[in-house]
Write a structure and sequence with these properties.
single chain; 450 residues; globular
């Protein structure tokens, strides 16, 4: 371990955040090295957003067929799990090699291996030392560890994407985004699904009343929901797995138990102490307003490894752009988290942007609410959706939108319109003057803001 490489920028992690930094810095003439011990591309395209959305789209067709029975559509549409998963893998699996080809074309050096700090300015990968001018940590997040008896029998959400056969009975431990998204996919495909949550409220990032509508849609799919059920143990009994949870040690029999209890910043293997890196309260890299380490100015961090509350691919990409700009031009740019839309891809999808009503109340902001069920609107009646709903919170002071949550088909697109209105400070009065294609889901905004 004698040779020392001294690139301009070492990026640890090849996901959306690290990829953005590498691409921009290389284009500006910087010598860039990207290191990752996993296949290049990151969680989103390989183990998260993209494969999940593929499975969502396939199962959505099957659910639509069920809803259209009374509208004249006949014939059986069943999900061939093996064929669906194979098709998803065919889309996903070429991505790492495509990323590597892009790096090579751009003059970026790709290195496969785990990175570890030896000191504040030195990182070792595959027994080779690197002393770059700037180090960018973009290692993302890793599944939250659990320590109850038998936890080794759990499978991760990463492993869920590799299952070639659908287990007849699945229990998901956790009640966040990935638990619900995968639970809906499995339930529509034919599995009996239970979601077991240790606390009392699912999906705290969303407005609780809209979550209730989504939970009713979940129950209609046959999903069984259990709160206040912290896992106690998991054991094998013949061909069954038995998860015991809650004060009464209730047993859940399953063929597969999936750990979906959230993710934490992936930092420990880097040896942050040797890198003189301070960690924040959530265990992520502590950064200043320029995404620069608060204790090691050579280091920047972006994406889920920062451990903020917006662990989303578009946020990671935006932070990567900020880091690249600050490396190239000196600290001059800050991340903007003011308007961040996001979607839970359940059936139907649940989408939100801005503040929830409870947050607005806590800040003593004068507001008014537009809310209700959309089940009687023709857009949703055509599809047979039973629980579409919305809540739009508006400032009484200037008539601008403070937050919006929508549960229903195409909510992921409608929420982008509300995000645009928030960014441009468009008032409700102005928004009501806009013309929309009809009949479209964009047009439903006119109904929401009456």
């Amino acid at each position: 371990m004698t040779k020392v490489e001294k690139p301009d920028v070492l990026v640890i992690g090849s996901g959306p955040a690290g990829g953005a930094v590498a691409r921009i810095c290389s284009a500006k003439g910087k010598q860039v090295v990207v290191a990752d011990y996993q296949p290049f591309g990151g969680t989103c395209p390989l183990r998260g957003c993209e494969p999940k959305k593929f499975l969502f789209d396939v199962t959505n067709v099957a659910l639509r067929r069920k809803h259209m029975t009374e509208r004249g559509l006949h014939g059986c549409i069943a999900v061939d799990w093996n064929k669906m998963m194979t098709a998803m893998a065919e889309m996903r699996d070429p991505i790492p090699s495509l990323v590597e080809q892009f790096y090579e074309k751009q003059g970026i050096t790709g290195v496969h291996g785990k990175a570890k700090f030896l000191s504040s300015d030195t990182v070792v990968i595959n027994r080779k030392k690197y002393q770059p001018e700037n180090i960018v940590i973009a290692t993302g997040a890793t599944p939250r560890a659990v320590d109850f008896d038998g936890h080794e029998l759990l499978i991760s959400t990463d492993e869920f994407f590799e299952m070639k056969e659908l287990p007849p009975r699945i229990v998901f431990v956790g009640g966040g985004f990935i638990a619900f998204e995968l639970a809906h996919i499995a339930a529509i495909a034919g599995s009996q699904v239970d979601i077991v949550l240790r606390s009392d409220r699912f999906l705290r990032r969303f407005d609780s009343s809209l979550v209730d509508c989504m939970l009713e849609a979940s129950r209609d799919l046959g999903i069984r929901l259990h709160t206040m059920m912290p896992p106690n143990s998991l054991k094998q009994e013949g061909n069954d797995l038995i998860l015991s949870a809650g004060e009464d040690d209730i047993g859940f029999r399953a063929d597969c138990v999936v750990l979906a209890a959230g993710r934490v910043a992936h930092v420990e293997e880097l040896d942050p102490k040797k890198g003189q890196l301070e960690l924040n309260k959530k265990g992520g890299i502590s950064v200043n307003e320029f995404m620069q380490s608060t204790t090691n100015p050579r280091v920047y961090a972006a994406g889920d490894v920062v451990g903020n509350s917006m662990e989303l691919t578009p946020v990671a990409s935006m932070e990567g752009l900020v880091v690249a700009s600050n490396i190239l031009n000196g600290n001059n740019e800050n991340p903007d988290y003011s308007v961040v839309p996001y979607t839970l891809f359940t059936h139907p999808p649940l989408s939100s942007v801005g503040l929830r009503e409870e947050e607005i109340k806590a800040n003593n902001i004068s507001y008014k609410v537009f809310e209700g069920s959309a089940s009687g609107w023709s857009e949703y009646r055509r599809l047979g959706e039973q629980y579409p709903s919305y809540k739009i919170v508006v400032s009484r002071t200037d008539d601008t939108i403070l937050g919006a949550t929508i549960n229903g088909h195409n909510s992921e697109e409608i929420i982008n319109i509300f995000a645009f209105a928030m960014r441009t400070k468009t008032t409700v009065a102005e928004l009501n003057k806009w013309l929309w294609a009809y009949p479209s889901f964009g047009y439903t905004i006119r109904y929401m803001l009456k």
